[in-house]
Amino acid sequence: MQTLQDFYNLDFERGKNRSWFWRARRPISFNEQWLFYRAIQPGKNRWNAAFWCGTNAVVRTAAIAEIGGIADETVTEDMHTTIRLHRHGWESVYHNEVLAHGLAARDATEYQAQRLRWGTGAMQIFGLEHPFTRRGLSLPQRLAYAATILGWFDAWRTLGYVLLPLVVLFSGAIPIHAPIAVFVIAFGVTFALQLLAMALLSRGYAPQGMAALFEFVRLQSNLKATLTYFRRGERPFSVTAKHGTDERRRTQAPWTLWVLLALTGLAIVWFACTLAGLTPIVYHVRWTVYGALFWVLVNLGFLAVALARIRSDRFASERRAAVRLQVGGPASVQGRPGHLLDISIGGAMIHCEHPPEHRDEPLNIALYCAGHEIALLGEERGRQTLADGNAISRLRFTEQQAPELARLTRALFASTRPNHGKEARTEASVA
Questions:
Q1: DSSP label at 37?
Q2: What beta strand segments (E) does 61-144 contain?
């Protein structure tokens, strides 16, 4: 039995949900993993094809014993094991309710490493288990596993969408032989139906803008993952790192995105030069070229936003060793009143009124967090002085206070709930 995975931290994978179709029923925020856990897994459950996702699950020991143990030949042992369980006649159940919270990837590096591992595991399963042809699975189960495994090849489709209009601008080739009226009607109807189908099937968890943006963010990782299918041999398991670093630094963007951005910019310049008669290319069917230019500009926008998100200071590698939670409440530093802005089990950020002078000795910090009053010792690691004389202090808790840190941990992780928890519980009845 697999339960819904939900996360305390959703910063990098969160965005605005601007879907007009579901705006009345869905929260404004969007998370990249909601589509899988709140729409796809419940759909798989209908066909006894929901699979184990590593955590938040219960597995019968008798079932594991019958298949010879956990499948350890791939780096996605959870889905691999589920395929063997299904092949031996065991059933899987997806319980669509938040029962526990974990940590999601905090920046692009963690996110891309996670997707690379998942995609690599899917390719290993594809080559070892042959879920589409080997006996033991029902037809719906085969289709469900095909949707998951083949979905990693969507990256090549995205790459094709970027490259095809570039080829048209650079070469003047005409990829479509049809009158413009026929093409507009055929394309318009097909495109509208695709958007409607996605909106209905995803139940609003995949707004087109954000979904397309993350296709670009994970493009290089998914391309690399699919290529591992052609390279046999063991792949080391690399867990997604969710810890702090010695210094805060921006994430390096994948080189594939930089190359595509450069080619897109060059294509626009080439197009302008061609219209001015400065190149040997002649555009015989102008509307086709203008259509290609439109998609080049759309792709340019997605590439630029994806690179900006990956390189943003907001999503730079974090120095804190634990995830920060957006939990507010009264606080004080050395008796000076303030307000808690965010907190982790290693430190806090406090808006302090008339803060004390910087000192080397530990500071007395009082927090009123999740209904608990907690007194801690800490040191100031940085300060932003405000125009009104107040300051935002970045504090790190000292280590020699295990009982109080334990109280803080219980207060944070036993009481903090993301805003979408209630919605997830109501989805259980729908599924």
A1: I
A2: 94-103
Pair 281, 172: CB distance under 8 Å: yes
Residues whose CB falls within 8 Å of the CB of residue 82, separated by 6 or more in sequence, listed in order:
51, 52, 92
Instruction: Locate 227 and state its tokens.
Output: 């290529």
Question: What's the pLDDT score for residue 27?
Answer: 54
Could you give the 3-state DSSP secondary structure of residue 33?
A: coil
What confidence tier does 34 reach under pLDDT thresholds 50, 70, 90?
confident
Mean pLDDT across the chain = 84
Neighbours of 345 (CB within 10 A): 18
Residue type, 205: Y
pLDDT digits (tens, 9 = 90+) for 11-28: 777 776 665 555 555 555
Averaged pLDDT for residues 177-198 = 90
- Whether the predicted pLDDT of 158 surpasses 80: yes
9, 145, 402, 418 from 103: Cα distances, Å: 6, 26, 23, 12
CB 306 within 8 A of CB 216: yes
Q: What is the pLDDT of residue 420?
A: 44
| 251 token code pair | 């994430």
Amino acid, single-letter form, for residue 43: G
- Burial call 223-252: b when 16+ CB within 10 Å, e when fewer: bbbbebbeeeeebeeeebebebeeeeeebe
8 Å CB contact between 222 and 113: no
- Alpha-carbon distance of 157 to 262, in angstroms, equals 20
Query: Of 3.30.930.10, 2.40.110.10, 2.40.10.220, 2.60.120.10, which CATH number belongs to 329-415?
Result: 2.40.10.220
- Which residue's structure tokens are 């207060």? 411
pLDDT digit string, tens, across residues 245-284: 445 466 788 999 999 999 999 999 999 999 999 999 988 8
Collapse the DSSP code of 344 into the 3-class scheme (helix H, G, I; strand E, B; otherwise coil) and give the result: coil
| Beta strand spans in 19-107 (E) | 29-31, 94-103
Q: Contact at 8 Å (CB) between 391 and 385?
A: yes
Amino acid type, 103: L
Task: Characterize 380-406 residue by residue with b for buried, 16 or more Cβ atoms within 10 angstroms of its Cβ, and e for exposed.
Answer: beeeeeeeeebbbbbbbbeeebeebbe
d(CA 216, CA 218): 5
Residue showing tokens 């000076």? 336
Choose between 62 and 34: higher pLDDT: 62
d(CA 328, CA 379): 20
